[in-house]
Amino acid sequence: MRSSRVTRLGLGGLGCVLLSVCAASPASSQYTPEQFRADCLDGVTKLEERYRHCSGRYRIIETMPRVDWQLIRDVEFAVSGEQWLIICHNLEEWRKGQLHKVHYQQSVRGANSVYSFLLTGRYETRELRLETYEMAEEVASKPSGGGIRDMIAFWLSPIRAPFSLRTLPLPALLRHPTFRVLKLRDGEREGVRVIRADFEVRPGQPFTDPRISWTREPVWGWFEVAPDQEWTVRAFEYTYMAPGHKPEIPLVKARVNGEVLYNIDFEGRPIVIQFKESTSWRDLPPDSMIEMKDIQIEYGPVSEDRFRLSYYGLPEPPGVTWVQERRTPVYVWLLVAAGVLLTLAVFFRWLARRLRRGHSEG
């Protein structure tokens, strides 16, 4: 009798332990690598679509710790699909904790479906000059779609941070045929549950997207996403082989770390408030660090004109013409509205007379 009671107690205790283990099982155990890849791809693709039309401003602080040097800029941006715009305003140069110089010259980088361009000068007064431009068809096969687009992609890092690993868009990375999830782990960051995914990929073999296929070498590392908050990227680290600066050293190992901080907006959705990034070479301490903060984003359509040279008072490249949309003048709409109101007034007046006549005859 006693042994059977002990057995029942033991089985009951074992059941409680199993139940507690099941209840506390990590969320990552619910996913196979294939399921995680599919759900994560669905989440970050929706995020990418949300940020396809937006504009705003932010502040960027670039630090080079080895020489105690900082550059601080105010940046204005606009995105309309694959049309991008970055305006870098006044630049503060700090050395050893002291303001060294203020550069008042501004730069404008823009890209549309036909070409990309770089302007310098005074943006407020439209005293801008064209430094260079790249025709899209001539740089289509180059990494990131050309040097100007590549630089704009860097400046858009904080805006694309919810669905990117620095300048690597996660949707394009997850779709690449060589992408592999090696391991899934659970964690927490800033009080939010995250899943960390270790991965490896060869984004340039085969070439699928200029935004990720800029290297044929392997890229490996990890990233953290928050499934409960729209699969937003929270942190990442990846390593890749970058071109060396000497013939005897053709490739150099580079490691990139990043962290993204969020607030929750009035709709209950996460919005980026800060983005941090550092780059290390040859396993040495970081030689460059970037912090982007005071981020302000407005979602909605952006005028197509802002991505064209003519908007800044400069001629379009030879052979480039744009079909201008014929917009109805405001006064035409006012006349139409007045005509509708007049028609309604006449109708109601006629209706009132008819009703009075009907009552008098009755």
Topology diagram in text:
Layout: H1 2-23, H2 33-50, E1 53-64, E2 69-80, E3 83-95, E4 98-103, E5 106-111, E6 115-122, E7 127-135, H3 136-139, H4 147-155, H5 157-160, E8 164-165, E9 168-169, H6 170-175, E10 180-189, E11 192-201, E12 219-226, E13 232-246, E14 249-264, E15 270-281, E16 288-299, H7 330-361
Summarize the structure.
With 362 residues, the protein is an alpha+beta fold. The protein has seven helices and 16 strands. 26% of the residues lie in helices and 42% in strands.
Explained architecture:
The chain crosses the membrane at residues 330-352. Keywords: Membrane, Signal, Transmembrane, Transmembrane helix. Residues 1-23 form the signal peptide. Strand 3 and strand 4 (98-103) form a beta hairpin. The strands form two sheets. Strands 1, 2, 3, 4, 5, 6, 7, 10, 11, 12, 13, 14, 15 and 16 form a 14-stranded antiparallel β-sheet that branches. The chain has a two-stranded antiparallel ribbon with strand order 8-9. The chain contains seven helices and 16 strands. It has helices at residues 2-23, 33-50, 136-139, 147-155, 157-160, 170-175, 330-361, and strands spanning 53-64, 69-80, 83-95, 98-103, 106-111, 115-122, 127-135, 164-165, 168-169, 180-189, 192-201, 219-226, 232-246, 249-264, 270-281, 288-299. The protein is α+β, with helices and mostly antiparallel strands and 362 residues long.
